[in-house]
What we know:
Elements: E1 5-10, H1 16-23, E2 42-48, E3 51-58, H2 65-75, H3 82-95, H4 102-112, E4 116-122, H5 131-141, E5 145-150, H6 158-165, E6 172-174, H7 182-193, H8 197-234, E7 237-240, H9 247-276, E8 284-286, H10 309-319, H11 324-330, H12 339-355, H13 359-362, E9 367-369, E10 372-375, H14 381-399, E11 409-411, H15 425-437, H16 444-459
Parallel strand pairs: 1-3, 1-4, 4-5, 5-6, 8-11
Antiparallel strand pairs: 2-3, 7-10, 9-10
Helix pairs in contact: 2-3, 2-5, 3-4, 7-8, 8-9, 8-14, 8-16, 9-14, 10-12, 10-15, 15-16
Amino acid sequence: MTIPKIAVVGHPNKGKSSIVATLVHNDNIAISKLSGTTTASHGYVFELDGQALYTIYDTPGFQRPRRCFEELDQMVGNAAERSDAINAFIRQYKNENDATFKDEIELLEPIMAGAGIIYVVDGAAPYSPEYEFEMTILQWTGKPRMALINPIGGEAYLEEWQQALGQFFSIVKIFNPLTADLDKQVGVLAAFAQLHEPWLRPLNQAVQKLEQHSEHQLMQTAQVITAYIDDAIAYQIKLPLVDEKLAKKVEDTLKSRYKKELTSLENKFRQDLLTIYAYKNLHLNVKDFELSHPDLFDQSYWYFFGLNKRKLIALGFVAGAATGAVVDASVGGTSFFTGTILGGLTAGTASYFASSDPSAIKIKGISIGGKQITAGPISNAQFRFVLLGRAVYYFQQLQQHTHANRSVLDLSQEPNMNWIEQLDKKSQVSLARLLQKATRGLSTSDRESLQKIVYTLLSIKNENSNA
């Protein structure tokens, strides 16, 4: 079966290459604000599990559409001859030592060879009758075609473009390749499927496979995050202590190595996600762990990822609860950790956390025992949530970053999210208990339980997404 082929065409600098990169999930495609970056047509085959689903052509922009149309118009006697005239035009100027229409030939060749058309315009630029020469030439090809309005700099001229494009294209959609999530991407493919009956089945199958692949990626991500959290919380490092007079020096060395290892585990998890989502060139701006902070309950600090003081105290209590009965009772009412449970425990719990030496978060578990100094596992309840919060935040930022977006993924800013509240009360309690258990390493069944909760967190649409 011949796979669908689509050529992305239009005026220079309208985001054609960005649209191609997003639709084929390829961050190797050259993208530049400078006009003329794409000088030749190139087809990018999109494959999943070794199966080619469709080909998208990146093409140069129209350079001389008026002259090109005038040449074509002289070759046409009636409407039935238009397609033949374009083929003759390609043959004539491709064989001559004349580069006048080099770009037009490059973009028309894949179309006349059977590719459908996606015509791209900029919603921030005013409409001009000059564009009608481009649209008329594309109309003369007789190929299935749709138009995308790319709001590169905004949508100031959106309505004007919609009215003009509607006269040449049966489908007109707004599509920002820098923010288009999977729903918007498959929306373009599904719409194109309606334009050409032979492509209806293969493009609908491509949409189905994309959605299945996205679900598989989500499950893989939940598995990777769960393994990372379990490994990081349970991680332990020891150094021998030959002379107790050297304890401070050995301790400092141990703290440095411990922080380095936690950072290494987090970096590996992040690289695993880049692999899962097929990013080869994405650069990260990351704020490393700060294992100490002067105020554990500074709600303005990004460190706690939306966990406020009350929630930290409550979840800290749950994580250290002695019996399941106490935990079960805490979710029996209509509000989470309020009334008698929280009222009777808040003062003592708050005092415990507030008076804790910040160095306890630095290396919780450092102790001199016999001839060894030990760091880890992480016993501080808040820091366990910090690890998971950072992982969820990273995933959500990555989800908003398409393959056309070549900016650095900035993870150093304060996240505006309260991820723990996205879970129901029972799941919050289960999560706290599983993170507490992780200090000893999770059993297979506990890992599966944690993975289900992580999957739930990842499945929730990020309210802050600008896609």
